[in-house]
Amino acid sequence: MAQIQQMQAMQRQMEQMQAELEEKEVTATAGGGVVTAVVSGKKELTSLTIQPEVVDPDDVETLQDLVIAAVNEGMRQIDELTNDEYGKLTGGLNIPGM
After folding, report:
1. InterPro entries per the record (predicted)?
2. Less crowded by CB within 10 Å, the N or C end of the chain?
């Protein structure tokens, strides 16, 4: 019975942690800061800022690459933050699906 209570407590902690993570945001940049992406804990792009000097109609590919780089870095940071937080809760246990 104590084991079930421990699992239920861990489940509540995980639900609370997930809710807290969803409220967090990370900011990532590319090209020395000419492109800035803000990604939420829900892995949603919430803001994208592009400095005017990087916009070149003759070189759209570079701008596309910078946007992709900034968004991917933001997603990576959210994954890292999520893994760190779950690692604290599980004490390093390798629980499938986390």
Report:
1. YbaB-like_sf, YbaB/EbfC
2. N
